[in-house]
């Protein structure tokens, strides 16, 4: 099954997402800020990254930009989660290199469906 990194600074949301995806059989690793996520990305192989837009230390947007120029990591699939739901925010995220964007709040079922679509593509 797919190996996913979830970078989310809100503990309750991190637990909800982890539980929802692990119930579907996905292997999850978690980070609570952008710097921790970057370290895990540099030292592990993931099939998908789920990043929060507004994290401490490195934002999801900053992280996407770093990942897209990393040797051997530039093709990682990235799903950005954000409470910022303006069209300009979505455009900025996708222009930076994220593959998909989901606005918070979202249903866990919607997230599971989106993850499945991204991993099947």
UniProtKB/TrEMBL annotation:
Signal peptide: none annotated. PROSITE patterns: RESPONSE_REGULATORY. The keyword Glycoprotein does not apply. Keywords: Phosphoprotein. Pfam families: Response_reg. Residues 3-119 form the Response regulatory domain. GO terms for biological process: phosphorelay signal transduction system. Gene3D superfamilies: 3.40.50.2300. The modification 4-aspartylphosphate is found at residue 52. This is Response regulator transcription factor.
């Amino acid at each position: 099954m797919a190996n996913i990194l979830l970078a989310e600074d809100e503990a309750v949301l991190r637990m909800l997402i982890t539980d929802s995806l692990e119930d579907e059989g996905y292997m999850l690793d978690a980070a609570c800020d952008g710097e921790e996520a970057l370290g895990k990305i540099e030292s592990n192989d993931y099939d998908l990254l789920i990043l929060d837009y507004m994290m401490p230390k490195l934002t999801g947007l900053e992280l996407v930009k770093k990942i897209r120029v990393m040797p051997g990591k530039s093709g990682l699939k990235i799903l950005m989660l954000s409470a910022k739901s303006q069209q300009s925010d979505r455009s900025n995220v996708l222009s930076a290199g994220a593959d998909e964007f989901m606005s918070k709040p979202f249903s866990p079922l919607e997230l599971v469906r989106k993850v499945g679509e991204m991993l099947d593509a």
